[in-house]
């Protein structure tokens, strides 16, 4: 009986080691109201015994999404996205064509806000959830949850959620 338990523990441990770091954001798109609080969820699993560094990055839309949300998207964007169903004209562009900035980072229990977000009610709660106290107009965009561990370099270390702030 003891051998069976030891074997199962070994198989479980090897499986966990093979998977490596796995980051998932359960909600791929979130709509929230202006001046209201929100939480962007991020879950991760790792075989590392070292503390993970959590970082949330913001990437602006490639073009204004408010027109689409009000039913006024451009004909050019509609025709391009119909030709290539995998391509989204609002989300898919080079970082050099949009604003990219660090929102917050957490190492251990210390949370550090990016320069643009200092003075705002923003923190990382639980293991890796981004909590924003009061949404502003410029908060609409893509948010990337990025997890770094010193000794777990395999797997998927980031995932993203789209946040659309409405009035």
TrEMBL record:
Keyword Signal among record annotations: yes
Residue span(s) of domain Immunoglobulin: 27-166
A cellular component term, taken from the record's GO annotations: membrane
One GO BP annotation of this record: pancreas development
Signal peptide: 1-20
Keywords annotated in UniProt: Signal
Superkingdom of this protein's organism: Eukaryota
PANTHER family per UniProt: IMMUNOGLOBULIN-LIKE DOMAIN-CONTAINING RECEPTOR 2 (PTHR15923:SF0), TRANSMEMBRANE AND IMMUNOGLOBULIN DOMAIN-CONTAINING PROTEIN (PTHR15923)
Name of the protein in question: Immunoglobulin like domain containing receptor 2
Organism: Propithecus coquereli
Organism classification: Eukaryota, Metazoa, Chordata, Craniata, Vertebrata
Gene from which this protein is expressed: ILDR2
């Amino acid at each position: 009986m003891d051998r069976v338990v030891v074997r199962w523990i070994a198989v479980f441990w090897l499986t966990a080691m093979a998977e490596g770091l796995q980051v998932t954001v359960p909600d791929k798109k979130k709509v929230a109201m202006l001046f209201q609080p929100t939480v962007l969820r991020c879950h991760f699993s790792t075989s590392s015994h070292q503390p993970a560094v959590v970082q949330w990055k913001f990437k602006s839309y490639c073009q204004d999404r408010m027109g689409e949300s009000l039913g006024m998207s451009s004909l050019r964007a509609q025709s391009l996205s119909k030709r290539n169903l995998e391509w989204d004209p609002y989300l898919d562009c080079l970082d050099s064509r949009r604003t990219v900035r660090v929102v917050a980072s957490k190492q251990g229990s210390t949370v550090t806000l990016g320069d643009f977000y200092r003075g705002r009610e923003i923190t990382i709660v639980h293991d890796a959830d981004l909590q924003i106290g009061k949404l502003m107009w410029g908060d609409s965009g893509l948010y990337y949850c990025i997890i770094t561990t010193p000794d777990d370099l395999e797997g998927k270390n980031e995932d993203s959620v789209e946040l659309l702030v409405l009035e």
